[in-house]
Amino acid sequence: MRPLLLIDITFHANTEYADTDELIKAQYSSLNYVNVMKHKLSIEVIKHIGNHAMVIKEHPGIKFFRGKNSFFYIPFTTLRYLKHKRPDIILVQGLKFPFQLIALKWLLGKRVKIIAKHHADHPPAWPKSLVQKFADKYTDSYLFTSYGNASEWIETKMISSYDKVMELPATFTAFTKRDKTKSKQKLGMGEGLHYLWVGRLNNNKDPMTILAGFAKYLTPMPGARLHFIYQSDDLLEEMKQFINDHQVLQHSVQLHGYIPYAELPDWYSAADFFISGSHREAGSAGLLEAMACGCIPIVTSIAPAMKVICNGQYGFYFEPGNAGELADILISSQNSIHSDLSAKTETWFNSEYSLPAIAEKLYQLCSTLTGK
Fold first, then answer.
1. N or C: which end of the chain has fewer CB within 10 A?
2. What SS3 class is residue 278?
3. Domain check: are 165 and 206 in the same one?
């Protein structure tokens, strides 16, 4: 009997890369589960590209097809390829292409099982909502970071039942903890507590609330350091002005900017706490990366973050946009025994969100859906 064949397909056509090497490098973290699952089932990844100037290079286990980011566009070349491959399971990345999902089911028949994975998608408005509801009839299961993320899809009847939903993070990480002392020495971190931010400087990630809360925290508790690592700088000038206006922050906040991905484990391992101010997320790569390295989370009380920290058992949380509550959490978190909570956080990550743990959950779902 041949092993189950899973096709991981993204209908979104990438246009921002010069070649496929660059695309795969940028999306590496979303694909690093593949190697872990290869001993359990066969996996092939399909990506679509919309830039006709993009250079297509060979990547083992990955196929590239031309596509368009149009709601009703059908990539016939891709569908013919899938009909030839006869997969057992198709994992569709994102919920924005229900028309293509319907075409998949019509072409491949009842035998193939379709899993749709939520990213940062919102339920569509009418008339696209009609297509989305119809696609639900052909979708066997959905992956959401938390049931809380799925609630708006259930309430708008885009998804017929929570029974179809499985909780699985939107992204994965292969990071592991490094020696804390060596990482601190390597990065030149001094004594005292170190807090780490990793993300985009935009309104949804809300770094301004983090700065405001940290300023309130430092007033009675000087000596801590807050490090910002960021890929985009939308609010950078506003942040610099806020820091200049608050003397207590001027020697306590460091704006590092971009740090190569391979160097991030040292930062997570050296820091004591990871801070996130997000108002909305499908799931946080930074949160998982931090926990993998034993960096204690301080996150907003949004559904996906609360799921990952097990409602506060493995981290702290505050209301989005509430600088005062954040300051209180920062003060109270100092009373925790850092080494114990750090170890518990890492252990929880390894048991629930490490690549082997995620691979096993996905494999069990595939086995259940196919009856094999």
1. N
2. coil
3. no
Q: Do 319 and 291 belong together in one domain?
A: yes
Q: Encode pLDDT of 195-225 as tens digits.
A: 999 999 999 999 999 999 999 999 877 789 9
- The CATH number given to whatever domain includes residue 239 is 3.40.50.2000
Model pLDDT, residue 337: 66
Q: Where are the alpha helices (DSSP H) in the chain?
A: 20-26, 28-31, 34-37, 76-85, 98-108, 128-136, 147-155, 180-187, 207-218, 236-245, 247-250, 264-270, 285-292, 303-308, 323-333, 338-352, 355-370
- Distance from first CA to last CA of the chain, Å, rounded? 10
Same domain, 341 and 361: no
Domain of 90, in residue numbers: 5-172+355-370
Is residue 212 domain-shared with residue 319, that is, in the same domain?
Answer: yes
Q: Is the pLDDT of residue 372 over 80?
A: no
Residue type, 331: I
Mean pLDDT of 183-191: 94
* Residues whose CB falls within 8 Å of the CB of residue 53, separated by 6 or more in sequence, listed in order: 18
User: Can you tell me which residue has the tokens 């790569």?
Assistant: 285
Domain identity same for 220 and 270:
yes
Residue 364 has what pLDDT?
95
Same domain, 345 and 364: no
Q: Let me know whether 218 and 307 are in one domain.
A: yes
Residues 155 and 197 in one domain: no
Q: Average pLDDT in the 98-110 region?
A: 95
Please give the average per-residue pLDDT across 54-81, as a whole number: 93
Supply the pLDDT for residue 77: 95
Which own/partner contact pairs does 58-63 have at CB distance under 8 Å and 24+ positions apart?
59/20, 59/21, 59/24, 61/34, 62/20, 62/24
**Total count of residues recorded for the chain:** 372
Alpha-carbon gap, residue 276 to 253, rounded angstroms: 15
